[in-house]
Write a structure and sequence with these properties.
This protein is α/β, with parallel strands linked by helices. It has one domain: 4-Layer Sandwich (Metallo-beta-lactamase, Chain A). It has a six-stranded mixed β-sheet. A five-stranded mixed β-sheet has the order 7-8-9-10-11. It has six helices and eleven strands.
Length: 190
């Protein structure tokens, strides 16, 4: 499996991942400069905030997968917060339930439909879990209580995984599961 990590969305430094030149996870603004305009991609979203979806307009989307609880964010600029940038963005085209087609752990907290996508030896954690932090829970539709519960579920899930499983978050640095468990204070508190 070939995985390319791109840092997109300028000021927001969103990690966008391309797998085997077929799948794009969280297409941030600017992703179009890294891919062929004629190539169709399957798109997987960890959640529906603007910094993870603005690149949708720059690529050919074959199929889009998102958790149903984040469809409202995808379709509404106020919900996905793109209106704050004076770049209102909404995706009103068809979408599919990511839970029915991919191996995901539903991790509400940052958004109601946040999820961690498990592909091969990689966990794409979006804004649920970073190398040494977690996603914000002070935004509209966020929940501190849901995030705490999601982190408990994730930590339990981690017990079934090899320590060299790769954690690929939506922002900042990547690392192995072992490194994240050692460096993330939020996981130590659980």
């Amino acid at each position: 499996m070939e995985i390319q990590k791109l840092v997109t969305s300028k000021g927001f430094q969103t990690n966008t991942y391309i797998i085997n030149n077929e799948i794009i996870i969280d297409p941030g603004e600017g992703v179009g400069q890294f891919v062929s305009k004629d190539h169709e991609f399957i798109v997987l979203l960890t959640h529906g905030h603007f910094d993870h979806i603005l690149g949708l307009s720059e690529i050919k989307v074959k199929e889009l997968y998102v958790h149903p609880l984040d469809v409202n964010l995808l379709q509404n600029p106020k919900e996905n917060l793109s209106f704050l940038l004076d770049k209102p963005f909404s995706w009103l085209k068809p979408w599919k339930n990511i839970s029915e087609n991919y191996r995901v752990i539903h991790t509400p907290g940052h958004t109601p439909g946040s999820c961690v996508i498990h592909i091969g030896d990689y966990l794409f954690t979006g804004d649920t879990l970073f190398f040494d932090s977690i996603g914000r829970t002070d935004l509209p539709n966020s929940s501190t209580d849901d995030m705490k519960n999601s982190l408990k579920i994730l930590k339990q899930y981690f017990k079934s995984l090899p320590r060299n499983t790769f954690i690929a978050p939506g922002h900042m640095r990547t690392g192995t599961l072992e490194e994240v468990l050692e460096n993330n204070p939020f996981l130590k508190e659980i």
